[in-house]
Amino acid sequence: MSIYDFYPKIFEKKIPINLLDIPSRNYLHWKKENLLNIPKENKSDSIEKREKVLLNVFDALWLSIIKELREFNIDFPTIRAVKDVLYSNIQLNQDKLDSTSKDEFINTILKKIPDEYQEIIKPLLLDGSFFTLIDKIIDKRNVILFQNIGGILFDILVREIAVSLIIKKNSDAVEVEFLKNNSGNSSVHIAESISNSIIKDTFINVPMLPLVAKMFENSNFDKYNFQFDLFNQNEKKIIDALNDDLCKEIKVNKHQSGDITLNLTFEADVKNEHAKEVRRILGLKQYEKIELVYRNEKHLIINNTRKEILKKE
């Protein structure tokens, strides 16, 4: 089960580069320095073209990482080394695999799969056909799901796990590690890992969660969240109400069944001749309040609230 099953439109290139606050000149320079994950151009295509750059979520995350590293003046060779790791296939820990029983291995994978899909996946894991199936479905587009950058987004968006990118230099070689804060890693283990790195190594820590959150929590990003289907239909109704200037009050009640009742209050000013017409039809007096409840085509309920001040005699 991959992030594609939850967000099938996440591959589509819809995000403009200016949304990431990256100037076009920086983008072109990074492209020239081979920092971007794009195919190498032919000589005939090397002439710079003034064309609009659109990104998918994976590209946007990588550019955000480059931007973060460049703000600390990290050199291009180091960034290229990080790119190679992020866009390489996820590697399994062979030592752990060798020391893990088949049942333990299967249970470990199932823990990372949502409950509703476990009954489908488990038989495929037991007979070994799951991995054959993966080999068959990998193509040029979805291969990124099986790469480290795809794993990072899956952890953050689906598994709700915070991931940090730890970059170290060891004898001119660049090492990249992924530190994950999840239930499988105790806080003691994480603290020990960080403590050892602080004492022994010089390293750069790039937390992934703030970079992803910065993209999706930016109000300018809202329409792209809709285009990527990052919200379900119920969430869209609430966001539409929040963006509607006429909606003055939103009340959300959640029931034990899991259902949600959404009460929306809209307010619109009616003036001049339209106001006179509505007042005449409803028979309103000054500062009276009327509530109409539509039951069906033949049945309306009218609640009339009248405010009256009684002067002290």
3D structure, described in words:
With 313 residues, the protein is of the alpha+beta class. It is built from 14 helices and nine strands. The strands form four sheets. It has a three-stranded antiparallel beta sheet with strand order 4-3-5, with helices on both faces. The chain has a two-stranded antiparallel ribbon with strand order 1-2. A two-stranded antiparallel ribbon has the order 6-7. Helices cover 44% and strands 18% of the residues. A hairpin with a 2-residue loop joins β8 and β9. The chain folds into two domains: 157 residues, no CATH class; 74 residues, no CATH class.
* Total number of strands: 9
The end-to-end span amounts to 77 Å
How many helices? The count is 14
Q: Catalogue the unreliable spans.
A: 42-47
What portion of residues belong to β-strands? 15-25%
Percent in helix? 40-55%
Which structural class matches the secondary elements?
A: alpha+beta
- Regarding quaternary structure, what we see is single chain
The strand line-up of the biggest sheet is 4-3-5
Which short descriptors sum up this protein?
alpha+beta, three-stranded antiparallel beta sheet, two-stranded antiparallel sheet, DUF4393 domain-containing protein, 2 domains
